[in-house]
Write a structure and sequence with these properties.
6 strands; 46% helix; alpha+beta
Length: 104
């Protein structure tokens, strides 16, 4: 979550399920140490995570794979859309370039 212009982010952990939606924990940075701190502070309770919604930042993926092995990873819709759109655009651009060169 953006906290200030210039790429200053927060690490935010929510509980979202059928009967409850609440903020559980907030970290001041978007770092691996910050997310590790969440797992350290929540201790054994963090092992009961069933689902994790996250972006595609590689360090978070690595920590969650290590500290929440049992959780199903759900990708953030906004980041997933951006990633897929970028791949589709790049592929279309390459095809158009090939067709243009082929016709010349």
């Amino acid at each position: 979550m953006l906290r200030h212009r210039g790429h200053k982010y927060l690490t935010v952990v929510y509980q979202i399920d059928g009967h409850c939606r609440r903020l559980l924990w907030t970290g001041v940075d978007r770092t691996t140490e910050c997310l590790d701190k969440f797992f350290d502070e929540f201790g054994p309770r963090a092992r009961h995570l069933r689902f994790v919604c996250r972006d595609m930042w590689r360090p978070y993926i690595n920590i969650l794979a290590r500290r929440a092995k049992q959780a199903v990873h759900v990708l953030d819709r906004c980041h997933l859309h951006k990633c897929l759109s970028g791949h589709i655009w790049e592929r279309s651009r390459k095809r158009l370039y090939f067709l243009h060169r082929w016709r010349s």
